[in-house]
Design brief:
There is one protein chain. By secondary structure, the chain is mostly helical. The protein contains six helices and no strands. Helix 1 crosses helix 5, helix 1 crosses helix 6 and helix 2 packs antiparallel against helix 4.
């Protein structure tokens, strides 16, 4: 039961860190900016070429992955499963610690409002 809880907290922590935290905000903005360049300026990047269309599709998919908690959560769950399968518990505990600290911070914020 303890391993399942650590697994769930780890996958949730990793998903939250990538999709919502300030640490990955520059990466999310960079991917979004590149997608906008390819989407808004078709003449500048020759959107008709196959390679340009593939780059646009890649940036659209990557942007959705980095901004969607559920989408990234699926891949985070797979990554955490692989880490657990190979007994790499250090990273799992780090991710579990990050999500549990987030929960405590949110609870403190709620209590301060009341």
């Amino acid at each position: 039961m303890q391993e399942l809880l650590i697994f769930i907290l780890s996958a949730s922590g990793l998903s939250w860190i990538v999709t919502k935290s300030k640490v990955f905000k520059p990466l999310r903005e960079s991917v979004s900016f590149k997608r906008k360049i390819y989407q808004l300026e078709p003449k500048a990047v020759e959107i008709n070429s196959l390679m340009s269309r593939m780059k646009l599709s890649f940036f659209i998919g990557l942007e959705q992955l980095l901004n969607c908690y559920g989408c990234f959560g699926f891949w985070a769950g797979l990554a955490c499963y692989e880490l657990q399968r190979y007994n790499v518990n250090t990273l799992l505990y780090a991710f579990a610690g990050s999500i549990s600290s987030l929960i405590i911070i949110e609870l403190i914020k709620l209590l301060e409002k009341k």
